[in-house]
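#structure-requests
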Amino acid sequence: MNDQAENLRKKMKQNAQIKQAKTVAFVSGKGGVGKSNIAINFSLELAAKGNKVLLLDLDIGMGNVEILLGQQAKKTVVDMLEDKLELHDIVEHGPNGLAFIAGGSALSDFFRMDQRYMDHFSSQLQQAIQCFDHIVLDMGAGATADSMYFILAADACIVITTPEPTAITDAYGMIKHIIHHNGSMPIQVVMNRSTSPKGGHAALERFRLVVQQFLNIDVKPLGIIPNDEAVTQAVIRQQPVVCSKRKSPFSKAIKQTVEKYGFESQPVAEKDADSFIQKMKYFFLKER
């Protein structure tokens, strides 16, 4: 781990070439739809394909990425901000070479991003953008003042929902909130816990048509994830499904989702190397 941290430190201090990592925010209208579990397995599969991936848990104070990965992070995002640590000092490494930063859990003090924290966070994140190919943001459920500027600044947004009416309603509300602030945001939808491929596709198509009719935008179906017992077992064992049960229906669906994402995803132009940071600061100041 020390060697990995040292290598990352060196890479993040190099300025050989300017590139922009693709940033994608995983969001949900409500909790309990499996967002973090999908974000983790998605990131692991993306890393398994040879990509340099950073998974950033931004459900600050309520994060569970490290738990689902079966690891215990020494430092969290909050530690970095409060103690002015450098990002490479808090990065942990999981399976498939996945780099991740924990959001922390059960924090006793209420955390709120302010200008001082934002300045430090953006300076550290700029280094990561030039070091990784993809940065996956695992956001907290719903829309909060401290989460929206990250979501709105991302290059793409993946909304996780299930066929349940309450989850569908909340996912619709989340998309409505996002496009109200950023009408050009590319949005893709994953239907989780589908009882059958046919039923999942039907639910996702109905949802797409409703969004198109009432919000006048075209969200793209990204994946149908089955309701798989292997997921429950993996959560209990704290072993990601794509690592422990590669042949499970869930793992196969995640692989297909990553392949479709990679096929449709467009690289960010070098001239836009600072766009994520700039947009993040813009939306942050707009919300103040």
